RNA sequence: GCAGGUGUAGCUCAGUUGGUUAGAGCGCCGGUCUGUGGAACCGGAGGUCGGUGGUUCGAGCCCACCCACCUGUACCA
């Protein structure tokens, strides 16, 4: 920008206070190079597993009619509570999807007659939730779902649990560093019945109890007991009201849910005796026994385990529920342990399609939180995070049109040979151009001033090698004079020389681990 | 939503008992340089001190309200 001595020379006709502030809305994120390619690679791996299991692709739009999405209808005062909503020309409410299951239910209901049953599909895409963002929690995030619609058998549930395990391993989570935990909502219902919380009038308290159980991994048995009983006070002194159960009832609930993940039929049979008075509970246990049997037969017992503390979506799931949890711990930069917890979850939702069709359509599905899984992989060091190799940069040493044409020709030659290349298009001098090339991650630059031009040569500098050599040169004058990792070649050999550098770089990357 | 905390340049922070034109380091942009990334030197951009209102001759500093962010918690399809 030109030097100015008067503020009236402002190039913009807007006053500073009128200019918008360049800022990202909270809870959203920009993503660039390495992260994007890592995401792409991960999505490909997940897709590979899903398709191997026989699921087919489906894409639905980012928004739907609000009533098709479910119970989160906007009201006049707070139309965007929880979901982002807006009105169409004809006043109908539309909402951004908050998961990929509700749109699937709509799609299946709308196309029911055309689809093979069971219908097995996968979907990947961004979903939107208008809630308070936090670390690792965004208002736009990606999910990757697979669902089987029209299959009443628990074999469909067992299959999805096994697929979840295969998927986590495919993206690089080692066996033993995760567990897929399975429960059955019917068992929890049976427990609730056993402590006298059956019936419509206890709906609210049932929710409170289930929410308390869901906090097991966060607060432990004592914390959950407080939430089941009188309530719990957190670190800031804020108080959470409890479910008001008495000691015996609390003990009953905990006798189920405080078990760690298990496998084998024995504990299940114990639990079955405990809730033998409850018909629904007994049914739930029987389903879990079947799942356990299928999992054992397929050899997944070390990865997929029964765990009666899994709760998941409260008013949503009707049978088996599952959750994939990462079990390793990582410490953050402050040395505090970070748990990633659940990276995927799902369950059976026999009521969702019925909303549209009246008749029950049993379905079971599973959703991976792509962003969270990606963060976990990054922490594990499992991301293919080789820094992207930038383009070869041809420096614009002279700015006359004829010379620019020369540089453009060089770039064209490189591109014709499949080498990523560009001419420096900015207005700055050579030093700034070198900085630019450095920042772009360029493997090499091509330099041709008038001297080189007269000699029919170009200077080619290997930036990676150059940086290495430069590290041992302290004095600036010496550094400049040395021109490290730079060689002059005839113009006709420019492409070959660049290619040699790129090949050396590609090999060097493998050995750079030390 | 609730509870607690924090707001001065892109980042990390100074800023006297309230007193002229709000500073530093790092970063950023450019130059010194027919030339070379890092280093050095020189120059530059960048702040209505989170916002609004109040007290005062005078507010970055005091008061009120609001907003944003952080931590915990609630909710989470």
From TrEMBL:
The keyword Cytoplasm applies. Keywords: Aminoacyl-tRNA synthetase, ATP-binding, Cytoplasm, Ligase, Nucleotide-binding, Protein biosynthesis. Residues 1-30 are annotated as: Disordered. It catalyses: tRNA(His) + L-histidine + ATP = L-histidyl-tRNA(His) + AMP + diphosphate + H(+). It is found in: Cytoplasm. GO terms for biological process: histidyl-tRNA aminoacylation. Residues 42-391 form the Aminoacyl-transfer RNA synthetases class-II family profile domain. Its EC number is 6.1.1.21. SUPFAM superfamilies: Class II aaRS ABD-related, Class II aaRS and biotin synthetases. It is an enzyme of class 6 (ligase). Residues 1-21 have a biased composition (Basic and acidic residues). L-histidine binds at residues 99-101, 129, 143, 147, 312, 316-317. Gene3D superfamilies: Anticodon-binding domain, Bira Bifunctional Protein, Domain 2. Belongs to the class-II aminoacyl-tRNA synthetase family. This is Histidine--tRNA ligase. It comes from Xanthobacter tagetidis. The lineage of its organism: Bacteria, Pseudomonadati, Pseudomonadota, Alphaproteobacteria, Hyphomicrobiales. The gene is hisS.
């Amino acid at each position: 920008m030109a030097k100015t001595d008067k503020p009236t020379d402002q190039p913009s006709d807007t006053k500073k206070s009128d200019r918008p502030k360049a800022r990202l809305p909270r809870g959203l994120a920009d993503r660039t190079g390495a992260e994007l390619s890592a995401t792409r690679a991960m999505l490909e791996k997940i897709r590979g597993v899903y398709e191997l299991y026989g699921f087919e692709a489906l894409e639905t739009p980012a928004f739907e009619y609000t009533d098709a999405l479910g119970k989160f209808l906007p009201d006049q005062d707070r139309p965007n509570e929880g979901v982002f909503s807006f009105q169409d020309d004809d006043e109908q409410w539309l909402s951004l999807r908050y998961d990929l299951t509700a749109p699937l239910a709509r799609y299946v209901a709308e196309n029911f007659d055309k689809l093979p049953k069971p219908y097995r599909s996968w979907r990947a895409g961004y979903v939107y939730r208008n809630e308070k963002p936090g670390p690792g929690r965004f208002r736009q995030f990606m999910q990757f779902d697979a669902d089987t619609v029209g299959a009443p058998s628990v074999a469909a549930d067992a299959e999805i649990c096994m697929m979840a395990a295969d998927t986590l391993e495919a993206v690089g989570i080692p066996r033993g560093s995760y567990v897929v935990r399975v429960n059955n909502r019917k068992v929890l219902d049976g427990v609730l019945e056993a402590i006298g919380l059956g019936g419509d009038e206890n709906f609210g308290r049932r929710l409170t109890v289930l929410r308390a159980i869901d906090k097991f991994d966060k607060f432990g048995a004592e914390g959950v007991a407080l939430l089941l009983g009188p309530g719990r006070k957190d670190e800031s002194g804020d108080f959470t009201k409890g479910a008001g159960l008495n000691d015996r009832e609390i003990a009953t609930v905990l006798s189920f849910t405080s078990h760690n993940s298990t496998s084998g039929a024995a504990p299940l049979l114990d639990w079955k005796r405990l809730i033998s008075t409850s018909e629904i509970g007994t049914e739930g246990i029987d389903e879990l026994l079947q799942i356990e049997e299928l999992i054992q037969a397929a050899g997944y017992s070390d990865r997929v385990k029964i765990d009666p503390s899994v709760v998941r979506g409260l008013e949503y799931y009707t049978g088996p529920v599952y959750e994939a949890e990462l079990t390793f711990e990582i410490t953050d930069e402050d040395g505090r342990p970070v748990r990633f917890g659940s990276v995927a979850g799902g369950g059976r939702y026999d009521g969702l399609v019925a909303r549209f069709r009246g008749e029950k359509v049993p379905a079971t599905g599973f959703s991976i939180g792509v962003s969270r899984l990606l963060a976990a992989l990054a922490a594990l060091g499992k991301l293919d995070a080789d820094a992207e190799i930038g383009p070869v940069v041809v420096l614009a040493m002279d700015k006359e049109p004829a010379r620019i044409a020369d540089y453009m020709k060089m770039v064209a030659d490189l591109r014709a040979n499949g080498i990523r290349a560009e001419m420096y298009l900015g207005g700055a001098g050579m030093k700034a151009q070198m900085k630019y090339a450095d920042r772009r991650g360029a493997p090499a630059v091509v330099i041709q001033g008038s001297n080189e031009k007269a000699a029919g040569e170009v200077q080619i500098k290997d930036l990676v090698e150059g940086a290495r050599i430069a590290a041992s040169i302290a004095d600036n004058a010496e550094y400049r004079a040395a021109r490290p990792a730079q060689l002059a070649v005839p113009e006709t050999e420019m492409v070959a020389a660049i290619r040699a550098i790129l090949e050396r770089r590609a090999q060097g990357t493998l050995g750079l681990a030390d």
